[in-house]
Design a protein that fits this description.
alpha/beta; Fumarate Reductase Iron-sulfur Protein, Chain B, domain 2; Rossmann fold; five-stranded mixed sheet; four-stranded parallel sheet; 9 strands; 47% helix
């Protein structure tokens, strides 16, 4: 975002404070400087020379989960997260700490958890590519979708971690590389809400490439499934599902249609889990408080399994439920599971896929089952 675009977005802010009502961080700290409105005013003060950049301003700008709730709920259409990312100024040391080398070094630490696992093998001839997120890659998690042959697209990171740290240079380089792969694909399937949101927001040179991006839940629309065992399930909606244009009701419709499954909605299914990338490392107290609120909601809803579609959210749910269990002396708590894994391992098609191929009503926003189902 150019400087004139930053100023234009700040001008659009009407100071209505609706961002205050949807900000998970403000809900915890009750400090105006933590809201989008407060951050915008500080940035405007810096630009006009009325304020000088200091530690307190840097701290308030860092108090952001990048959940994008402020942007999505802004009646004036202010691109709040775009402004924040554009205004993050890094020192020489800061640039080293946010470099590609350091990021890959951090991610490689996850290999300790998958040392004995085999690297997933995908179909090499398919023109439906899988966008393998960094966490899935390091943990060697495999995306399997009933009836769909996937090829690993060998993409780089979605680049959002760099953008949120102010490394627009690395972000643009990665976005261009990933688009070059998308250009030659028929479809690109995602199973991580954050990756999906990040790539959908790329500054595509060819806008048509954006229409090739789908989330795995699109494939399961009107796809008849039956759970192998009866279960009660709930769903935690990752913040970036909303920023990618997906709705909670889309997921709920899929879960409600699965035979042997009873869906129970959480009281606050779209409330942030608090982990937000590495936010939980920088601000553990706030992150833990938010994650425990989510754990309490899950336990009070009392499903057998709580599902989600984001690796970081899954970590948050598993950790908070485990700690909550110990703190309150509970005999057991609901299991947390990735929804894609649940649909693959715990469910199976109960209707002939030939009927799916011939059903003219069986379609989704970006694709049709007829195009995707390959048995």
């Amino acid at each position: 975002m150019r400087d004139d675009e930053v100023k234009k977005n700040i001008y659009k802010c009407s100071r209505c404070a609706l961002c205050q009502g949807v900000c998970p961080v403000y809900d915890e700290v009750k400090n105006e400087n933590s809201t989008a409105r407060g951050k915008l005013m500080q940035i405007w003060g810096l630009k006009k020379g009325e304020l000088k950049l200091n530690r307190k301003i840097l701290q308030s700008l860092d108090l952001c989960l990048n959940c994008e709730k402020c942007r999505l709920n802004c009646p004036s259409g202010v691109d709040t997260t775009g402004v924040f990312n554009a205004e993050k100024k890094l020192s020489f040391t800061g640039k080293i700490l946010t470099s590609d080398f350091v990021f890959n070094l951090k991610m490689s630490a996850l290999r300790l958890f998958s040392f004995f696992k085999k690297t997933p093998v995908y179909n090499k001839s398919s023109d439906i590519l899988y966008f393998e997120g960094c966490i899935s890659k390091e943990l060697k998690n495999k995306l399997v979708i009933h009836g769909v042959k996937l090829k690993n697209g060998n993409f780089k990171c979605c680049a959002l971690p760099y953008l949120t740290k102010g490394r627009v240079d690395i972000y643009n380089e990665i976005a261009a590389f990933n688009e070059s792969i998308i250009e030659n694909a028929r479809l690109v399937v995602f199973d991580c809400a954050t990756c999906f949101s990040a790539v959908r927001n790329y500054p595509f040179k060819n806008p048509k490439n954006r229409s090739k991006l789908i989330f795995y839940t699109d494939i399961y629309k009107n796809f008849p499934l039956e759970a192998k065992k009866p279960a009660v399930v709930s769903y935690h909606m990752p913040c970036h599902m909303n920023s990618a244009g997906k709705k909670l009701t889309e997921v709920e419709e899929i879960l409600k249609e699965i035979k042997n499954i009873k869906y129970k909605r959480l009281e606050n299914p779209e409330y942030c889990c608090g982990f937000g990338g590495d936010f939980f490392i920088r601000h553990p107290k706030i992150a833990l408080s938010l994650s425990f609120k989510k754990a309490r909601d899950i336990i009070e809803t009392n499903p057998d399994i709580v599902l989600t579609s984001c690796p970081t959210c899954l970590w948050s749910l598993r950790f908070s439920l485990f700690v909550y269990k110990i703190m309150h002396g509970l005999a057991k708590t609901p299991a947390a599971m990735d929804m894609a894994e649940f649909l693959n391992k715990h469910c199976m098609p109960y209707k002939s896929t030939d009927n799916l191929k011939n059903d003219p009503q069986n379609n989704c926003k970006d694709c049709t089952q007829k195009e995707l189902v390959k048995m």
